[in-house]
Description:
By secondary structure, the chain is α+β, with helices and mostly antiparallel strands. Helix content is 18%, strand content 35%.
Amino acid sequence: xxxxxxVKAAHEDEGCVKGVAFGVADMRSEPKFRxxxxxxxxxxxxxxxxxxKDGYYRAKGRDRYEGYxxxxxxxxxxxxxxxxxxxxxxxxxxxxxxxxxLSEKDARRFEVPRKLLVPVHRTADPVALSKRFLGVxxxxxxxxxxxxxxxxxxxxxxxxxxxxxxxxxxxxxxAGETVDGFDAARRGDLVFFTGHVAIYLGDRRIIxxxxxxxxxxxxxxxxxxxxxxxxxxxxxxxxxxxxxxxTRVRP
Length: 251
C-alpha cells in the first residue's frame, strides 16, 4: 500500500494544465538546472504536464514543444487569460515581460496600467512590433524581451499577433505558404536560412535575433557586405503566415 501511494503522488499532476507563475520560465532538455535551455515560457502561458521528475515537470507547451520546467515556476491556472501585456510591468517582485498573459484578477492584483492591457485575441502587426526590440540581446532558447533566439523572436511576435508558429526555425520553415522569391515577398513574411529565421521588412531588409550582432538587428541583404553575402549563401526560402493550422493551438 505505501508503494501505491508513492506512485500516485509522483503522477498526480499528470495531464493537468498549469500556468507559468513567474516572469519567465526556462524549458530545459533534462530535469536539472545545468541542462540546455531549449525554450522559455512567459507569465500566464500554459503547459500540459506529462510527468514529473526531480522537482521538474515534463511539460508540453501550446506549440507542442516538450521539455522540463521547474515545478516552482508554474501553478494552477487562476481564471482565463483575458489580456496580453503590450510592454514590461513590475509588481510583487515579478518582472513581467512583453507578451505575458494575465487574467482579470492578475490585472487587478498587480495593478497593471490599462494602457499595457491588450485583449488576448486582438491582432497586431509583427513588423511594427519587431522594431521595438532592436538591441535586445541574443539568448539561446530565449523567447522573451529579456533575450531572444531567432525563432523565439519570430514566435513571440507572431503569437502576440494571434498566429501560432512552431518553436524551431526548421519547423517554421516547413509550415506556412511558400513565397516565390524576394520579388513576391511582402513585409511580415519569414525568410529562412540554414538554421536561422528572420522577418522581412521589405526592400531586401530583414530584422532578426542573431548571434553575429549579439541581438536583434536589421540586415540589408543588398548591401554587398560579407555578412549579407554569407546569408545569401545559406538562404533556404520564404514563407507566409497570414493564419494557419497552428492558430490559437492549446496544449
